[in-house]
Design a protein that fits this description.
It contains 14 helices and 30 strands. The protein is an alpha+beta fold and 591 residues long.
Length: 591
């Protein structure tokens, strides 16, 4: 049963170029234009007072219900007091034109569709450009309402509508007697919008999403959750380059009042293998191939360091800074843009990258010219792993303290060599296998010797350590150990006992550089459910899964974290990793 909650009760709309978050009460409180990593035009989610928003407001006698049109990313908010009723329909246009190219303008379309009566409403339109820096001024012009900021940097935004512009500028109460449209555009429109045109783009956008969903397999159980998660992942896909961002937002905290606030509008190499495997399972091969191409296009020259993350167009410099004038989500400072983690050393990325290359070569076996280039990269990665796998690093959770010997990082170094061996067998008849098998065996033996804690009966977070870590559950998924192996079964049970609390998982429970984690990391709970299912505890896995999906918001969307006590959603939203893991786990439970 779905739990009604106040935290992160937003829907997401988008067009694979940018996105917007719309609260259950119609308030648009987050949007960056013209693309995901641009400055925001609305960011009330990060500052209630100065952040900026766009809301259709009615008096308290009206009841509000929000849902997506079936099998689309078009949001429908019904507002009714019994006698008077209308719908607010929100979308970002996305459809294929006659020339075969997609129409994805940097704009939001909003329709007020009259259902019955004469509903009364106000338009509260308060854009705050450039992350609410400087002073945004909004003016009425002949064909549009324009908003401008030019004291700290220059930005403009255009609003087109068939409503009286004074009613917008002055927030007058209106009586809805006919359908009304609003088009918020980053660019000044050459061809002015009209009601007919906006309805045409609505219909075309619905057709696009329904067609996309039609290509997705149908599952006996949890099909609606799988489909919504799949569409959410598509919304987080920057189609121009193939990048998939970790989340649509920045600085939604992992815990209220703490400082674990990061910018997730970038593409992590680590997500690559999970993205590729999961999206492949639901049949969207073009999205997979575009993402693989993005990953392969950002691989540096042989002597250049591979970063853990990149900008959506392959940018390498993601300099982090704080916007101290913003109060933060529920007053949780700081608000950060950029992400300093791009400078970190994380040895696991080589295994994840090699896993992606292996998938590419195995799946697209006829692309010999690309395989020659990839084979050169494979040899380079093995060389890097050979010279670095014994070194300490920051680990999967991007610890900002001292480097340590994380078991997950060693595991992915093993994956790198294992996949290189498999690639060698495909492209050169296994000529390099004899050179690399001893390295694979050495890393395997090293992990089995140093990561196993006999007292805990489990593989631990770090070598010779005693703390447990949810990432260790992925040992089986990457092929390092069999699900029937007694050490893996024992590890799953130990991690469940120590890190599972009220059906939700800690990533780990030892203190890090910010103290003791106080919220559950959603993807880890999915990993635990998957692991329990694999070792034979299928009924328990199903109960935990159904408990977890009840904590999503009213539109079946997940953020990064869940508060253990209140079950509030926390962390950046919606979170790609959470929805990837939901799909993967739901498919496993169907088998």
């Amino acid at each position: 049963m779905k739990i009604e909650r106040e935290s992160l009760n937003y829907g997401i709309i988008g067009n694979c170029k940018s996105s917007a978050l719309i609260k259950k009460d119609t308030s648009i409180e987050w949007c960056c234009l013209p693309q995901f990593d641009s400055d925001s035009i609305f960011c009330k989610i990060l500052d209630e007072e100065i952040g900026g928003y766009f809301k259709i407001e009615c008096n308290k006698t009206y009841k509000i219900n929000q849902k997506y049109f079936r099998n689309t990313c078009v949001l429908q908010t019904n507002i009714s007091d019994g006698e008077n009723e209308f719908e607010v329909i929100d979308f970002m246009p996305r459809f294929k034109k006659e020339n075969g190219k997609y129409y994805t303008p940097p704009e939001i379309s909003r329709i007020l569709k009259l259902k019955k009566g004469k509903p009364k409403f106000k338009v509260l339109y308060e854009p705050k450009l450039a992350f609410a820096s400087g002073n945004t001024r909004t003016y009425k012009k002949e064909n549009f309402v324009v908003s401008i900021v030019d004291d700290k940097k220059y930005e403009t935004l255009f609003l087109y509508t068939n409503l009286d512009k004074d009613a917008i500028i002055n927030s007058y109460e209106n009586e809805l007697r006919e359908n009304i449209y609003f088009v918020i555009s980053y660019n000044e429109k050459i061809n002015l919008p009209s009601m007919d045109k906006v309805f045409f783009e609505l219909d075309q956008t619905k057709v696009y999403w329904k067609s996309w969903c039609y290509k997705t397999p149908t599952f006996q159980e949890y099909n609606n959750e799988i489909l919504r998660s799949a569409m959410t992942l598509k919304l987080l896909n920057y189609e121009k380059t193939g990048a998939i961002i970790a989340a649509a937002t920045t600085s939604i905290p992992e815990s209220i009042g703490e400082v674990r606030n990061w910018d997730y509008r970038f593409c992590w190499i680590r997500d690559a293998s999970m993205v590729i495997k999961v999206i492949s399972k639901i049949g969207h091969t073009k999205m997979v191939k575009n993402f693989i191409d993005f990953i392969l296009n950002i691989i540096p020259d042989k002597n250049e360091k591979l970063q853990i993350m990149y900008g959506i167009s392959g940018e390498k410099n993601l300099t982090e800074k704080t916007l101290d004038y913003l109060s933060g989500y529920k007053n949780s400072k700081p608000v950060r843009i950029g992400n300093a983690a791009y400078l970190q050393k994380q040895n696991d990325i080589y295994g994840i990258l090699m896993d992606a290359i292996h998938f590419q070569i195995q799946k697209y076996s006829n692309e010999d010219d690309k395989h020659e280039e990839l084979w050169s990269i494979v040899k380079s990665i093995v060389w890097v792993v050979k010279n670095n796998w014994k070194l300490a690093d920051k680990g999967i959770w991007e610890i900002r303290g001292d480097n340590m010997h994380f078991t997950f990082s060693k595991l992915l170094c093993w994956v790198a060599v294992d996949r290189a061996i498999k690639i060698s067998k495909i492209v050169q008849g296994g000529k390099s296998v004899y050179k690399w098998e001893p390295l694979r065996e050495e890393i395997y033996n090293d992990i089995m010797t140093n990561a196993w804690n006999e007292n805990k009966k489990a593989f631990t977070q770090t070598y010779k350590g005693k703390d447990l870590d949810a990432s260790i559950l992925l040992m089986e998924d990457y092929g390092f150990i069999n699900s029937k192996d007694s050490k893996y079964i024992s590890t799953v049970k130990a991690i469940e006992k120590e890190l599972l609390k009220d059906g939700l998982m800690y990533r780990y429970k030892n203190e890090d550089d910010f103290g003791l984690p106080s919220s559950s990391f959603t993807v880890c709970t999915f990993w635990m459910i998957n692991s329990l299912h694999k070792i034979g505890y299928k009924d328990k896995a199903k109960r935990l899964f159904e408990n977890l999906i009840s904590y999503s918001n009213h539109l079946s969307l997940f953020s990064e974290d869940i508060d253990f006590e209140t079950k509030d959603l926390l962390g950046n939203f919606p979170q790609a990793y959470s929805h990837l893991a939901l799909i993967d786990t739901a498919i496993s439970l169907n088998n």
